[in-house]
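Internal tracking record. Fields below are filled automatically when a chain is submitted to the structure queue. Please do not edit lines marked as system-generated. If the sequence contains nonstandard residues, flag them in the REMARKS field before resubmitting.
Queue: standard
Priority: normal
Entity type: single polypeptide chain
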Amino acid sequence: MKSNKISYSDEKIKKATELLWKIWWFSFYLMIVPSLIAVVGFFIYFFIGKDLYVSVGLSVITFMFVLLFFYKAFDKYRKVPFFSNKLNNPSARINIVFLITILALIVTPIFVLLTPGENYFELLPLISFIILYNIVYYYYYFQPIGFFDPTEEKFKYAISSSQIISQPYNIMVFVNYIVHIVFLSYTFNTKVSWLFPLIWNIIFYVISRLSSVKNFKNITSSIGSKKPFLEDLTIFKKKFVNSLLGLVFVLLIQMPFVIVIVYIYVGIHHDLIEIITISLLSLVFLAFYFKIRLYVTSFYSKFLRRYKINEF
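SYSTEM-GENERATED OUTPUT FOLLOWS
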């Protein structure tokens, strides 16, 4: 009886100790370190630019970057790790690229809208995105989806560097970065450049999650039962590429109209020739979208047909 009480007491002490360590590492990695770096950054920015609003905005971006960067260090202390879990790579790939973009765009408007008159910092959304999106590459280094190694029970990259670079799902992540930069650079003087990509990132994030739920379940189930799931993984890659492709071209197609719409709202009108020109540009982008979408479908269909032939 005494031994049972002692073992129960030891178990409680062990759990309490683990909880305290978890609280400490959470505080250290996600509060103390990011806050200290953000404060130091604020004084550096203020010393260089002598602008309070700009310094606060840049220090907040610094805080978010460090927070996201150090989350990987804290993740291993969780019972169910998000980024250290080698089985959830497809799901994590969608979450990382969309959520980090949404975070980069949703925080900056607070400072952009509250900054009065001359201090209006129109480039803050662009700077925020350029800095925070690099975290995507950092996490993708730990979250490959090239193929699944059943012996080590984790996802791995393609065999060679050339294969990794040439994969459409990797190419589209970089193209997504470039197109967002172009869009935010082109529309920064509208003062709502962050609004359009924010809306479309939220929409395509929901679409990507919902359209891939079945694939996630099949992949997880196949891993548990040690069955092959190349077909489901390929279908997921195709859907992921198409989601980013759709997002990229929605931004490109509407980009020429953004400034026109915003200027009309504030009372500035464009000539008919200008409207016709930007309409033609949007049609060109639309034509490119269908052409690339056809290529993506053809690219992954070859693999899917091969898998079905091998089954027979």
